[in-house]
Amino acid sequence: MSFGTVGILSISGTLQTKVMRQAAQGACLIFLLLFHATGAARADCEASPVEMLPESDAAEVASFYRHWDGGCVWTDRAASDLYEVLSQSDLHGIAPESFGTPEIAGQLKAGRGTDLAGRDLLFTRSALRYARAMQAGRIDLMASGYDIAIPRWEPPVAAGLAAALKQDRLPEWLRALPPATPEYLRLKQALAFHRDLAARGGWPPLALEEGRRSLKPGETSAALAALRGRLVMLGDLRARIGGDRLDPQTVQAVIRFQSRHGLERDGIVGPKTLAALNVTPEERARQIALNMERYRIMAHAMPPTRVEVNAAAATAVLFEDGEPVLRMRTVVGTRKTPTPILSSLINTVVVNPPWVVPRSIYVGEIAPAIVRDPDYLEKHDMFWQEGQLVQRPGPKNSLGRLKFEFASPFAVYLHDTNAPSLFASDNRFRSHGCIRLEKPLDLAVRLLEPSEWSREEIEAAMAAGETARLPMSRSMPVVVAYWTAFVEEDGTVEFRDDIYGRDAALAALLRNVVPSSVRGAPVSACGA
């Protein structure tokens, strides 16, 4: 009888049964038992220094090991499968090194050493970190700003990893973790495209002649060849053909580029357009990666049927079963009064809403206006009621004829407007934080059951002038997000400026730096 056999037979019958049951996937445990017949082998892995891990990892790692009877968990094949998936995390905008891939590679190369517990712990910790990152992001988004209300999701990754290892389907489980929605997959493709551009050498700064501020359609410039080359690389222009004049074909490419970047679509290569053209592929890749991170954090709050506002682009979309069915422009908060980021449920449509003016707006805007014009309140249908300034429903009301209510920590909501001309502007950052809708009636018709409120009945209620609350038979999820990089259904890659500094705050948190934005006090409020 061999030494190994004696070792196994000398263990208690209960433990022997457990060892045999785990033999197919517990090579680490059997290896230990062969050399530690007294049972100390189990202690080698059970004594993993979980308490020495960061608090964010320790509880999850401990939870994972509670799914096992003891001993090491990871086989060489499972560890290799883990390394293969983790080494491709850069496709999702995350450096593989952040999941310990160099250490994993070192362990796989060295083979089994004496620190089997530490080896097992490394694999477990890396797998759980990757799973958490792909399903819920790497940070708590609310830590990046005082005006964010997206509760962090805590996915059951410990139980999921344990089940995947026991059922011998680790690679499938790991690859299924990232979001699989079209929006996320298109971002992933855009990231690969811009990284490929960067790998090809990027580009030098594009500049007009010295002293020249812009290049208008029909004008000539020595920079045309470089401009066309840039537009071709970005996919806005099909061919570099053309002389030194800004011809109609190149003008259309410039307009397409401007549209993708939220710029005024005039075909003029001015300072803003030139600055956007000079953003490097590396910078765009980082911007896309930050938005992929934000998407992973918020994915749990974005059901297939929802109203989604993109504050960075000042747009809104109604999705039904994942398909966009209604799009519109919006007016959102200014740089100083940013629209908050949140998720909630719309449950009531208010027709002809009054407006209770928040104190911040009264002090900052209305009180000075009254000093200049004592008749200001009367001219704007405003009156005092129980110490609050109220604007009557009607054509002068800032909320327009429709308001969509939802609970949130902030005094914001979706609403109509009495100034629809603002929707024609590319600069729609004009509100105190609320979201003004370009097509509020179309949205109301879709949110209210047709059997209860038809379009004609809603319009009649609006025309009546009286305030009415129309309860919805089903609540509609609403998400106010902040996408500075996103991809349309036709593959058009869109970018927007980081007007509220949320990308910068998220990037700081990912570097373990507390962003300055969280030190301020909330200023956005629209009243009630």
Domain module count: 3
Reported for the largest beta sheet, the result is:
8 strands, mixed, barrel
The residue ranges in which pLDDT falls below 50 over 5 or more consecutive positions are: 1-43
Would you report the number of β strands? 15
Structural class by SSE content:
alpha+beta
Can you characterise this structure?
- This protein is of the alpha+beta class and 528 residues long.
- It has three domains: 3-178, no CATH class; 203-279, PGBD-like superfamily/PGBD (Muramoyl-pentapeptide Carboxypeptidase, domain 1), CATH 1.10.101; 303-354 and 393-519, L,D-transpeptidase catalytic domain-like, CATH 2.40.440.10.
- Helices cover 40% and strands 15% of the residues.
- It is built from 20 helices and 15 strands.
- It has helices spanning 3-9, 13-21, 27-35, 40-46, 55-65, 76-86, 101-110, 116-136, 157-166, 170-175, 182-199, 224-234, 248-260, 271-277, 281-298, 359-372, 376-379, 440-447, 455-464, 502-510, and strands at 148-149, 306-310, 315-320, 323-333, 341-351, 355-356, 382-385, 388-391, 402-406, 414-415, 429-431, 435-437, 468-481, 485-487, 493-495.
- It has an eight-stranded mixed beta barrel with strand order 2-3-4-12-10-9-5-13. A three-stranded antiparallel sheet has the order 6-8-7.
- The longest helix has 21 residues, at 116-136.
- The N and C termini lie far apart (84 Å).
- The model is unreliable at 1-43 (pLDDT under 50).
